[in-house]
């Protein structure tokens, strides 16, 4: 896939990757944090990013987009709007006001819990799950499990960035979850 940005012959994945900032040793020493905020700040880059996802999913029979707290909210809400779908937030523990279900998981630098409203979707609804990146896969897998527990079908999980050296994308796929990522930082 080639970029449609004037004067650029970069593939979309290279174009998006080139606009992601790497912050060394954050939030812990040794972690190379991939910061997507530069993608969001530039109007052209943000539009290209959103369009990649919208074009991928516009002809699929989806009912909802679920976004993972917090950066998955940004992208997920915009994609849901563009696809004329509802949006479901998968939140960090203690952030939802109604009856919730929870799933604990491991991060690359600790553990956490995500929650979902127990009535976030109806059995059989087809859901696209969105987050900013896949590192160890824990967040994506936990969010998918929550959706599946209330009867949703996770059609595909999607993220901007894959960090394949951390093994998360492999684990997501081993759980039977289809996964799409725009770019990766393998060997970077």
TrEMBL record:
Domain of life of the organism encoding this protein: Bacteria
Domain Phosphoribosyltransferase: 55-165
Gene3D superfamilies associated with the record: 3.40.50.2020
Record's keyword terms, sorted: Cytoplasm, Glycosyltransferase, Purine salvage, Transferase
Task performed by this protein: Catalyzes a salvage reaction resulting in the formation of AMP, that is energically less costly than de novo synthesis.
Family label: Belongs to the purine/pyrimidine phosphoribosyltransferase family.
Name used for this protein in its record: Adenine phosphoribosyltransferase
